[in-house]
């Protein structure tokens, strides 16, 4: 999808004229991409023409998947190398200006060229970085920026590749704001006043010292002015200058997960009376406290982290971090009962941080999956020693103004954490973070078994698939290892480095660590989905246990099939599933945004759902012996639509916090079973299928009752199409998510069968992606058709300008059409 060059430059010029002086503008449109070929191969004919695209973009998401022995890690998507390029005009008015491009993320080993001059490199795919184009520009003519990116055996999951996050163009004066040059802290907060310290870093690209004036205005949520300050700053060409403005705000309204109130700091830079640059920075007032008597407190209130680990891909969009997709994930995760996310295992996108700020979700942002020891053949460990400090700086500078960020994680399952030199590395990273940002806490997601993996190497070698397979196969042995004296002694120093001990699959240590290390605070940084019922009871009881983060909150591409339910007649169990599996299938929410039964089970455990919830096991598996993986929950689904004969044996689960649940089928009792915390919040019934209605009646201790039912759909399926919003913005960051389903007249979804549906988008938009939740689907995300899965599919539409978008969906025998209005976004 592309916006024409002239349209992009019109938008850019308009944005720069908005305040009568240069400012910041999107640099996402007008790009092209093609596979990168060798230098001398460029001279040979026959190469594919470049594809015109708009950023963010994932160059791998449309690739043909290939069966291979090790392909389950990436969902059987091979790697590749890609070259992006963009032409843009540089007017003569920019002579003497500072011109930079800010990349929020390029995966991976980015190389940047301006007019064929090499200007920058960034090996890590998750770090934002600035490219100063000023010395390389040709004024009064068209210029070319080129970015190369590659992905090859460097990740344990689907990474995508390319310029997958937003890109921004900034044109400032000779004196200009540094990259991430406005940092705000709130060191003093009382009921009647709050203090915001705005630290502004300026640089001078000129040849002589210059004195600029900097004005800062703070606006509240209603955009009313609540504080302002102004001062001169002399900036030498050879060194940055920092201005700190200490500003008082009366009666500050605090940011909280339930009331995410935000303030905006508007920073203006003047030189000789001309306004050269304007920047807006969103921040919030909130307090954090951490101690073993109370655990974690936000604004003085104890908060238990109901957490979701998430990967960075957006399902049918691949790795493309389009802002609306990130916002929608935050909306749906919060609606599902989560109040926190852990970015796994890399720094979160600015777009998702913005959404967490606006919507009220707490964040643990994670720096690395590897340090000095590799987990994949060509991963970041090859670059870590030279780049870790710059990448930590990039993460902290990105996060520092976001009230949603409460903690930094320095790593995930790092093998070095079990030895003293690994603890030294952990201390280096942690102290670097504390130096940059002393206002937040630190953790490290340590897996007890991984920390001593070298001493268990023989066991690992005898288990196909390495450490993840070992974890899956060991079962109770893994608990014994986690609580062993070996792990206790080996990890003590690494845990002492951070503020909160992060435990991956280490809940067996909770009680032990409470006795051995009474000052150690613990968070379950990664836990098996089925463990939440027992984990949450412990977390609620003990202040030093501050939360649980399930693996995972949202299903993701790669690590294919780790959450599947195997059966004994399928042969030996392995960590990764065979082709054509493509998603992990361990998420509470599938890749289209549809909640799975485990999500409702978790909501019951959290105490957020009073009604029971019903999920039904596929009847064809009634007599088979299930062998779930450690990441499995259940293969039960929430439907009473089964293509079987009346009287077929059925196994039905009911999730409820009530002590007792009755199941009724068409008004006749199928039995009463205990539920509630004492029974893992789950009652299991065996009955027989009869079309109609299955009802769960939960009886509470006080005699009150809650009901929930599933009904068999009636009549013929109706092709139903619903956009998440009927009006969207004409912005490269907006999207419309169009849900497609086969329903009866009352909205009940027909689960049976996979019906092919095609999607045609006309008008002011394009089809950006299409897909379903099927973890082993072979449908392409880049096609215009796919099959429904359990009666559902999803089309994602991206606007190309103001106007109307017509979306036509064709099923086997039906057609449905909707219209989406694309409005010009209001001026900020």
TrEMBL record:
<dbReference type="GO" id="GO:0004565">
    <property type="term" value="F:beta-galactosidase activity"/>
</dbReference>
<dbReference type="InterPro" id="IPR051913">
    <property type="entry name" value="GH2_Domain-Containing"/>
</dbReference>
<dbReference type="Pfam" id="PF16355">
    <property type="entry name" value="DUF4982"/>
</dbReference>
<dbReference type="InterPro" id="IPR036156">
    <property type="entry name" value="Beta-gal/glucu_dom_sf"/>
</dbReference>
<feature type="domain" description="Glycoside hydrolase family 2">
    <location>
        <begin position="719"/>
        <end position="813"/>
    </location>
</feature>
<dbReference type="InterPro" id="IPR032311">
    <property type="entry name" value="DUF4982"/>
</dbReference>
<dbReference type="InterPro" id="IPR006103">
    <property type="entry name" value="Glyco_hydro_2_cat"/>
</dbReference>
<feature type="domain" description="Glycoside hydrolase family 2 catalytic">
    <location>
        <begin position="296"/>
        <end position="447"/>
    </location>
</feature>
<dbReference type="InterPro" id="IPR006102">
    <property type="entry name" value="Ig-like_GH2"/>
</dbReference>
<dbReference type="InterPro" id="IPR006104">
    <property type="entry name" value="Glyco_hydro_2_N"/>
</dbReference>
<dbReference type="Pfam" id="PF02837">
    <property type="entry name" value="Glyco_hydro_2_N"/>
</dbReference>
<keyword id="KW-0326">Glycosidase</keyword>
<feature type="domain" description="DUF4982">
    <location>
        <begin position="647"/>
        <end position="703"/>
    </location>
</feature>
<dbReference type="Pfam" id="PF02836">
    <property type="entry name" value="Glyco_hydro_2_C"/>
</dbReference>
<keyword id="KW-0378">Hydrolase</keyword>
<feature type="domain" description="Glycosyl hydrolases family 2 sugar binding">
    <location>
        <begin position="81"/>
        <end position="169"/>
    </location>
</feature>
<protein>
    <submittedName>
        <fullName>Beta-galactosidase</fullName>
        <ecNumber>3.2.1.23</ecNumber>
    </submittedName>
</protein>
<dbReference type="InterPro" id="IPR013783">
    <property type="entry name" value="Ig-like_fold"/>
</dbReference>
<dbReference type="InterPro" id="IPR006101">
    <property type="entry name" value="Glyco_hydro_2"/>
</dbReference>
<dbReference type="InterPro" id="IPR040605">
    <property type="entry name" value="Glyco_hydro2_dom5"/>
</dbReference>
<dbReference type="InterPro" id="IPR008979">
    <property type="entry name" value="Galactose-bd-like_sf"/>
</dbReference>
<comment type="similarity">
    <text>Belongs to the glycosyl hydrolase 2 family.</text>
</comment>
<dbReference type="InterPro" id="IPR017853">
    <property type="entry name" value="GH"/>
</dbReference>
<feature type="domain" description="Glycoside hydrolase family 2 immunoglobulin-like beta-sandwich">
    <location>
        <begin position="185"/>
        <end position="286"/>
    </location>
</feature>
<dbReference type="Pfam" id="PF18565">
    <property type="entry name" value="Glyco_hydro2_C5"/>
</dbReference>
<dbReference type="Pfam" id="PF00703">
    <property type="entry name" value="Glyco_hydro_2"/>
</dbReference>
